[in-house]
Amino acid sequence: MSYKNRLFPGAAIELIISEGEYQGNYQTRVDTVEENALAIGAPYYQGLILPLRAGTGLEVYYHDEISAYSFSTFIKERTAIPIPLFILDFPNNIRKIQRRNLVRIRDDFPLLYQVAGVNCLSDPRPAKVFNISGGGLCFRTGEKIEQDARLYLQMKLPGGQINTFARVLRVQVFENTVCHSVSAVFQDISEHDRDRIICHIFEKQRIMRQKGLL
What we know:
The structure is a single chain. The protein is mainly β. The protein has 2 domains: 4-101, Roll (Pnp Oxidase, Chain A); 103-210, Thrombin, subunit H (Beta Barrel). The protein is built from 1 helix and 16 strands. A 6-stranded antiparallel beta barrel has the order 1-2-3-8-7-6. Strands 11-12-13-16-15-14 form a 6-stranded antiparallel barrel. A hairpin with a 6-residue loop joins β15 (160-173) and β16. The longest helix is centred in the C-terminal third of the chain and has 20 residues, at 191-210. The chain starts with 11 loop residues before the first strand and ends with a helix.
């Protein structure tokens, strides 16, 4: 099924660059939509237009009120007239992600993580979860973790422990500290464990509503 009609001029999208010098997440908007091409505003990086070349592969994420969508694509060309744009290939194979997996809340519970090597895992290291969704989490640690690293997580939720692998999407360092904020997406997680996380989120939201915090 194609979800192309969910994109329109002015729609907000997120670009994910998974490798190279400009790895990271970038926010921008759709300029024009055609059958096989999508023109988007060229994002900015450190005050300058992101200098991505034609042929660069990337992932596009966008959403509506019900679901989120993503697709893999590449930059077909760049143009600067009348404004800086990237022209992307617009494929038909667009993936749908249930938005319930993306509901995110601030949380605070302990976490153990291990960095996966080629044939082994590192020793468990403690961290503190900052927020969580059915699709991933953000935690804080005093140790440096590389972007795209594969982690094995042991999460101690109130309803019991959940163990799963995850991939690091981005790492931010708090200025003048040794604290790192790590955002990761769950990988190979069972739907049962994902549902347990979502139930935990809904319960936290229910309690917060009762207290007038939502």
